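yo

u said u wanted the structure for the complex thing, so here. seqs first:
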Amino acid sequence: MTQYILRRVLIAIPTLLVISFVIFAVLAMAPGDPLAQFALNPAIPESTRQLIRTQFGLDQPWPIRYVKWLTSLSRGDWGFSFSTKSPVIDIVWQRMPQTLQVVGLAYLIAVCLAIPIGILSAVTQYSIFDNIATFFSFVGFSVPSFFTGILCILLFAVNLKWFPIVYSTTLEVNSLATFGQQVRQMFLPVLVLVVQQTAALTRFMRSSMLDNLSLDYVRTARAKGLSDRVVVVRHVLANSLIPVITLIALGIPTIFAGAIITENLFRVNGLGALLITSINNSDTPVVMALTFIFSILTIIFNLIADIMYGVLDPRVRYG
Amino acid sequence: MSEADQALDGRTTVTTTSALSQQLTTGIAIKPRTLLGDAWRRFRRHRLAMFGVATLLFFGLSVSLGPLIYQGYLLRQLEQEGMPISNPHPDLRALVDHLDFLSLMTPPNSIHLLGTDDLGRDLLARCMYGGRVSLAVGFVAMIIAISLGTFVGAVAGFFGGSIDQILMRITDLFLSLPVIPFILLTVYLFRDPVILAMGSPETGIFMIVVTVIGCLAWMQTARIVRASFLSLKEKEFVEAATALGVGTWAIMFRHILPNAMGPIIVAATLEVGSAIITESTLSFLGVGFPPDTPTWGRLVTDGSQYLQAAPWLALFPGALIFLAVLSINFLGDGLRDALDPRSRL
Amino acid sequence: MTHKRLWTWLVLMVTATTLLSACGKKPAQTPPTTAPVAATTTAPVASTAATTAATTAPTVAPTAAPTEIPTVAPTATPVAGGTLKILYAQAITVINPYQSTGTKDLDGATVIFEPLARYNQNDELVPYLAEEIPTLANGGIAKDSKSITWKLKKDVKWSDGTPFTADDVIFTWQYCSNPDTGCVWMSVFSNVDKVEAVDPTTVKVTWKKATSNPYNVFVSNTGMIIQKAQFANCVGKAAIADAACQKANLAPIGTNAYKLKEFKPGDTVIYEKNPNYRDVANTFFDTVEIKGGGDSTSAARAVCETGEVDYAWNLQVPAAVLTPILAAGKCDTVAGGSFGVERININFTNPDPILGSKRSEPDQPNPILNDLKVRQAIAKAIDRKPISEQLYGPAGAPTCNISVVPLAFTSTALTCERDLEGAKKLLDEAGWVLPDGKSIREKDGKPLKLTFQTSINTIRQGVQAIVKTNLADAGIQVDLKAIDPGVFFGSDPGNPDTLQKFYTDLQMYTNTPSDIGLDSYFVSWTCAEVNSSKVKWSKANDTRYCSKDYDALYTQFTAELDPAKRADLAKKLNDFLVNDVVVIPLINRMTPNGKSKTLEGPTYQTFDSVLWNIQSWKRTS
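structre next:
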C-alpha cells in the first residue's frame, strides 16, 4: 500500500511537468492580447504596445518563457499578473475564501441531498417519488445555470426582495446581524449551484443502486429472510456507494475551479470569476497558475479516489 | 398480473418472477429466441422508453418535415398581417431571418405560434431550424465522448499497470486543460484545414464543433468505466470466461461492458444535454456556428435576458432541451433494462 | 456505513436546509438596501456642514461657464455620510492610471487622482489642480503655440499630508515618458519637449512642434498627476518589477476627495474621505465602494429594481431588456455625449480565403466593393431606425456622421434615410442584376455575397441580423461571423480574426477620438496608415482605403491651428469619408449609466472619466 502510494507520487511529478508544459503551450499559442480593451485607442499606438509587451516579457519565444516560469515557480514565485501588475499568488489567496464558502458549501449540500434522494429513488423505482426526483434532476441538468440564476434573481431578489443580487466580498462577519447578511447573500448562488450539482449526482447514485439491487447477492440476502431495509442499507448501499464516492472525491478539485457562470452572475468574484476575466483579458500568468493548481489538485484527488476505492472494495488489487 | 404491469413493477419483483415466466415461455417456444429479439420484446414493454422513442421521433419529424407545413402557414399569416417576406423564393432560412416589425416580442398567437423575439423573428421557425443543428450536435458529440471514454476507461481498467497509468495521466491532462483557450487554439489551428477537407464550411464547422465537444467531455466517462472495470474484472464470471478461453477483447466488451452499462447510459444522457448547451458556449466564443444560427442552446441563452418581459423566448427552447434529454434518458433506461442479461422476462 | 448514520444524515440535512431558509427569510422584513439607512443613522457631527454641502455648488468653479451641473435643487436637507455604492461590469485591477488596462482602471484612479484640468460633459475644461485654464488671452498659451504654462493651485496636499508641487507634475511626465516604464499613455507625451517648474506652483510645457491641442497633456483621465515621493523609485523597469512599486500601483496616494481604504484587485475598491482634501467640508460620502464583475442586466436591476447600489456603469443591454427595468422607477439613465460611433467598415481589398497569405493585402482590390455604386447601395439599404429603437434604445442615437464630437466640429450636411428602391437601382446600374427565380443578385455568373464580422455582443448580433435582412431585401447575401472580443480587438499578429487583419468584406465596431484634437482620429483613413502584412497589421487603417484627395485634406487639417477653420475642415473630412462610403456610420453610442434617483452629481462624458466630478456627488432625500 505505502509502496503503491509512493510510486503514484513519483509518477505525479513528471506528469505535472508534462501537463504544465502543455498548458503553457496552449496559453502561449492561443490568440489574445492583454491590451485588447484599449484596442482602438489612437493614444496607444503599436510602439507603446510593443514596449508593454517587452515589459511583460512577452517579446521572448514561449519555450524560453516556459523555462523561466518553471525556474521561478521552483522558488515559489508564480509570476505577476498583467492586469494587476502584482504577484499572482496574492490574488489567488484573496479569491479563495469566497469560492470555498459558496462553491464548497453548495457541493456539500448537493452531496448530502443527492445520496438519500438517489437511494430512495432506486429503492422505489418508478414510484411517484422517483418520478418527481427524476423530473427535477432533469430540470437540473438540462437547464443551464445562467437560466436558473436569472430566474432566482427575478423571483427572490427583484420580486420578493428576500436576497441581494450583489455579493459583497468585503463583508466582515463579526456579529449575528452580519452573519445573517452573509447567509442571505450566499443563499442564491448556493441554491443555483445545488440545483445543478445535485441533479447529476442523484442520477449516478440511483443508477449505481439499481445495478446492485439486481445482483444475485441481494436475492440471497432476501432469501435468507433479511428485511428489505437491512438488505438495502447493509448490503446494497455499501456496494453502490463505492463508485459514487469516487465520483465525489474526483469532483472536489472542481470546487477550486469555482463556478464561472454563477460566480459571475452574483458577483461572488471567486476563483471562477478570476479565471474567466483573466482568460478574457489574456492575463496568462493568472490563467497558468489557476489551471496548474487545479491540475495538481486533480492528481491528488485522483490518487485519493484510487486509494479509497481499494479500501472500500477489498477485491480491487493495487497493481 | 399482465406482463406489461410486471415490467413497470420494478426490478425486484421482475427478478423474482422471471424464473417462472422464463420456464413458461421457453416451454412453448418453437423458434429459438435470440438475445436481440428478447431485448426488443423487453424494450417494447418499457412504457417510459417507448415514450422517449416517441418524443425523439416526433422531434426528428418536426425538424425535418415540420417546416414544410409550417412554412406555408407562416407565409400566409405574414401576408395577411401586412409584413410579407420580400424574398420571392422563401425557404426556412428566410423565415428564420425575417424581421416582423409589426409583432415585436409578441406572446404566442395565431400568426407566430410560439411568439416572436425583440426583432420580430418567429420562434417556432427558429426552434425548427435550430433543432436540426442542436439534436445532431447533441447525439454526435455524445457518441464521440462516450465511445472515447468507454474505450479509454475499459482499456485502463482492464489491463491496469502502466497502460492504466499512461491513460489516466492523459485523462488528468485533459481534465486540467484550460477549456476556453484550448478551444480557441484548436479552432484557430484546425478550422481552415478542416473546412477545406470537408468541402463546405457548414460540414467543416459541424465536424469541429462535435469533435471539440466530444474531446472535452470523455474524461468522466473514462473514469467511471475504469472504476467499474477495476471491480468487475475480479468477478467470477470473468474468471469463468478466461478459463473457457474467451479472447481478451471479447471479455472486455462482450462480458464486462454490458455489466457496466448503467453508469455509461447515465453519462451518455447527461452528455447529450450538456453538448447542446456547450454548443451555445462555443458560439459565444465565436468558434461555433455563425451568430445567426438559432441553435436551442443559443435561443435559451439569448432568451434568458428577456425572462421578465418575454418569458416564452427562453422557456420554449428550454423545454425542448429538457424533453430531449428526458427522452434520451428514458430510452437509455429502457435499453439498459432490455439489454441486461440478468433481467429475463 | 450503517443505516443509523444514514438517517441521522438525513435529519441533519433537513434541519440544515430549514435553518438556512429560515435565516434567509428572517431579515426579509427590513429592506435589503443598507446604504440609505446608514446615511441617516450615522448622522455626522456637523449637520451644518451637510447643509453647506447641499447648497454650495460643486467645487469645480467652472471658468468656461458650463451651463449646469446639478439641475435639481435638493428639497430636503440631505445628511452627509454613508457609502456611495458603484457597480462596474469590469472590475478595477490596478489603480495607477499609467499602468491601466482598461477604462475601468482609469475610473478607479479618478476617485483618488486629479489632473490639472478635466473636461465637463459639454467638453469644456474645468480647472482641478490648476488655478485657471491657460488660454491665448491670459497668456498661458504661447503665441507661437510652442508652449503652455499652467498655474497650479496653492496649498494642495496629498492625502498623506505632504504638499503638492510642480515637481510632482514634472515627475509624472518623466515617469510616463520613460520607455521602460511601460506607461500606457506614453504617446500622449510624445510631443512634449520638456516640462519645467517656473516656480513651485507654475509649470511650463514646451512642445517639440506647435500644436493645435495644447490641453492634451496633464488633462483628463490620461493626465492624472502621481506623487513623486511615492513613485520616485518606480521609473523604468522597476515600475512593475519592484515589490514596493507593485504595492504603490495598487495603493497610490492622491489629491482628490477620497483616498484608498481597501482594494481587492479585480473585485472591490473601497475609498474613504481624504481628510487632507482642500475642500473636505464638502465631501459628502464617508466611503465610496466600487464593485466589479457581473453582467449589465443585473447591474441595471441592482440600481433600478432592488436599489442595492447607487450607480451602475454602462448599462449596455438591448432596449427590450432595459425598458422594463427602468420602469421600476428607482433610477435614471445618464446618457449623452459620445462613447463612439458604431460603424460598418468597408474592406477595399479582397478577403477571399483562396488568396491565402495574399488575402486583404493592399495590392488585392476587392472585386465587389471597389465600385462606389455598390457601396452606396449598401449604405442606402441599411435602416438605422430599428437598430436604434429596438436594440440601442437610450444607449444610442442614429447618426450619419463618423465624427460626432465635439459638437462644433460635427457636420450637419448629411442625411441617411433608408432608400431601398434607390439601392436596387444603383445595383442594377452597377451590373448586379436579379436573375429570374433567384433571390441573390449576380454579375458575370458570380453571386453578390458578402461576409460581415463583428465582436460577440448581444446588441451587435442584433444589428448583424437587421443588416443581413436589410441587404437581403436589396438582393445581397450576407454571411455573418461573430468573434470573441478578446480575439477581435486583440493585436496578436498570429491570429486570423482580428479587426486589423479584416478577413471579411464588412466589419462593425465602435471607435472614438482619444482626445479633443481629432488628429489621431482622422489619421486612420490615410494611405500611410494602410494595414498589411508588411507592417504586421499594426496600423490604424483597416479599410485599406487610400485616396490622395483625402490625404491632402488631412494634411491641411493637421497644419491648421485656427479653431474655426479646423472645425470646417473636420466637417469636410467627415463628409468625404461618408460620401465616398468608406465607412457607414450607424449609431452614436452613449454609454448609459444608471443612477439612483436619490443620487446627485453624475453626468455623461465624452473626453474624460464618468466619475470626473465624484468629489461633488451627493445624496438627496
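Residues 1-27 of chain B have pLDDT under 50 and may be disordered. Chain B has two domains: 3-49, 123-339.
cya
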